[in-house]
Amino acid sequence: MTHSDCLLQACQAEIRKPLVDLGVSEYSIVLTIDSLVDTENEISSGQASDLLSADLTLFKQIALDLRRSFPTHRTLMGDRPEAIEGQAKLFRVLTAFARYNPQIGYVQGMSYIAAVLLMILSEEEAFWALVALLEKPKYLSELFDATLTKIQHQALIFHHLLKHRKPLLFQHLETLGVSSVHFIMQWFLTLFTSLPCWDSVLAIWDLIMLHGLQAVFRTGLTIILLLESRIMNMSEEAAVLPVLLRVPVDVSQHRVLIPALWNTDVQEWEINCMNRLVLEEAIGGQDEEKVNKESTKDCTSSLSHGQQDEKPSQEVGRSTSKKAVPGSSTKNVFTRLLKVAQHYLLESGKYSVPAKRSPALVRLPKTRISTSFTQAQGRTRRSSSRRSQNSTLGEVKKEQLFSQDSDAGAAEDRHVPLNERNFIPCPKTASQVQESQLI
Amino acid sequence: MSGGAELGFTEHLFKVLVIGDHKVGKTSFVKRYVKNQFYEELKTTIGVDFSMKVIDWDSHTRVRLQLWDIAGQERLRGLNRVFFKRSSGALVVYDMTNGSTLDGALNWKHELDSQVMLKNGRPIPAVLLANKCDETKVCRRNASLLEKLCQEKGFIGWFQTSAKENINVDEAAKFLVKHILQNNEESVKEEEQNMQINLKQQSKSNSTCC
């Protein structure tokens, strides 16, 4: 604990230095934001170091959100001493986190999560709780990153989950042009704190603390299922989006949402399968592009190589318009999905894994699950290594993460550098794809 | 983007983006425009917010505006392509009390033009909004600068607005809608022409191939 004390204090001290340089404190930052803007202009005209400029951007971003996270909560609203202290605490926690983990830094949505933690915990506890939430694979490490790539990926996973669970609803949303990224960002990045019923929010948070990211998906699915009949009766995007972005009280109230949440189940393996599907689609899309490119090879110039390189990342971000995945790769995906599922069911039947994991029962079955997954993954790995020799390293990392993942966020994973935990592999560049095709 | 005509009555559906840097007043602008309300403290927009405004443009035209209020932090982050899709116009907002947000607005405009365009390849109409004008006054030099910026960067015009004091909110939106409607008419005409050309070509190619 003393070690962690020091860490937090070190982070805060590091933050305080540039604050002092700017001549403000965390108590006055909201009020002095305008003068900070002037300072920023001075900085951009070359009067201060780049480092300070980066700090200033961060401070400004966070300071602007302090009052806009829960604008009606007594610890954050207005200019009363309690609110000033509340805002200063939130500022300290968020800046300290951005310093503690610069790879993530500050992403909008975090202020909501940190504010809720501060409503319940002391400042230091809130900081460490935030660190745990944002860094552990079990929780939100796959939601937050500086470029918002991860949340787009999760939105795609949700997209697939919905497609498999509720094909009709999915088809309807697809027809209307509603993309999951439109509402998933708000739901997931704020951890549902924008729901209008606070008792429901707290119950959802309890579930998330127990089950992690899986519970986030579970809640999302529950809400959309509760809205299903309503959405099915709507005939345009403009009607659907407001309902999703501002979930009505009759759906979010405790006695409706929470029982429905208990009746909706989303398993970890299900999310993992959907994750695999999304990754496959991204790669499949590239292969398809490759084929297209082959056919028009004569007219491609070296210039188009550069353009091609940009495509994969766009491909990952695309949520709705992916229809034309080549038939063969779709088939492969489903065969693989089926195998993973079968494997899971067989293993879980053998060892009778309880649906709700109680800590005492966890150890043995869990290691079995992770090995079974690893075997399944081994198969996948072999086939995917045919596609690309280059991605072996990425695959190993993925696998490491995988066992961590089913290890329910064990304490030692703190030492793994963040970028290694990121199991969304960077999409291969076109040139890599080409190389692997040659092999 | 336009609905069916019935006894000379047309209904249009347009998607309008509201973009600009963090906390320049995008959500406030939309709230004022749609609900004629102003809140001192609004929640930070995460991802995107969505509102709808129905305008009876004239006796035979109704315009339904979808306003997509996009979170300010998301600039240049791959998501914009998803959010910008199929939009017909944009309100690019900056905060007059904060000069750096004007640069931000220009970046947003650039991003917009690189992601979407009209069918004829021209940029979609965008209006520059100098928001929070109740807190400051534009001096003449500033006005001429903005005028010049609009021409350089391809905005169809600019307005000093205040969501708080309800200054120029309706006017700015109306100005944009007018341009969108014009573009729409033009594109309908162009499409008709293209259709005719295509038909001619098709009949030619049909005769050759089978």
Describe the 3D structure.
The complex is a heterodimer of chains A (about 450) and B (about 210). Chain A is an all-alpha fold and about 450 residues long. Among the domains of chain A are: about 5-135, putative rabgap domain of human tbc1 domain family member 14 like domains (Helicase, Ruva Protein, domain 3, Orthogonal Bundle); about 150-265, Ypt/Rab-GAP domain of gyp1p, domain 3 (Cyclin A, domain 1); about 395-439, no CATH class. Helices cover about 70% and strands about 0% of the residues of chain A. Chain A has 22 helices and no strands. Chain A has helices at about 1-20, 35-45, 50-65, 80-100, 110-120, 125-135, 150-165, 165-175, 180-190, 200-210, 215-225, 230, 235-245, 250, 255-265, 270-295, 300-315, 325-350, 360-385, 390-405, 420, 430-439. Chain A is globular. Chain A starts with a helix and ends with a helix. The model of chain A is unreliable at about 295-330 and about 350-439 (pLDDT under 50). Chain B is of the alpha/beta class and about 210 residues long. Helix content of chain B is about 40%, strand content about 25%. Chain B has five helices and six strands; from the N terminus they run βαββαβαβαβα. Chain B has helices spanning about 25-35, 80-85, 100-115, 140-155, 170-210, and strands spanning about 10-20, 50-60, 60-70, 90-95, 125-130, 155-160. In chain B, strand 5, helix 4 (about 140-155) and strand 6 form a beta-alpha-beta unit. Chain B is globular. Chain B starts with 9 loop residues before the first strand and ends with a helix. Residues about 1-5 of chain B have low confidence and may be disordered. The interface of A and B includes residues 107 and 112 of A.
SSE layout and pairing:
The complex is a heterodimer of chains A (439) and B (210).
Chain A: H1 2-22, H2 33-47, H3 50-66, H4 81-100, H5 110-120, H6 123-135, H7 149-165, H8 167-176, H9 180-189, H10 198-211, H11 213-226, H12 228-232, H13 237-245, H14 249-252, H15 254-263, H16 268-295, H17 302-317, H18 327-351, H19 359-387, H20 392-406, H21 418-421, H22 430-438
Helix pairs in contact in A: 1-4, 2-3, 3-4, 4-5, 4-6, 5-6, 7-8, 7-9, 7-16, 10-11, 10-15, 16-17, 16-18, 18-19, 19-20
Chain B: E1 10-20, H1 26-35, E2 48-58, E3 61-70, H2 80-84, E4 89-95, H3 100-115, E5 126-131, H4 140-153, E6 157-160, H5 169-209
Parallel strand pairs in B: 1-3, 1-4, 4-5, 5-6
Antiparallel strand pairs in B: 2-3
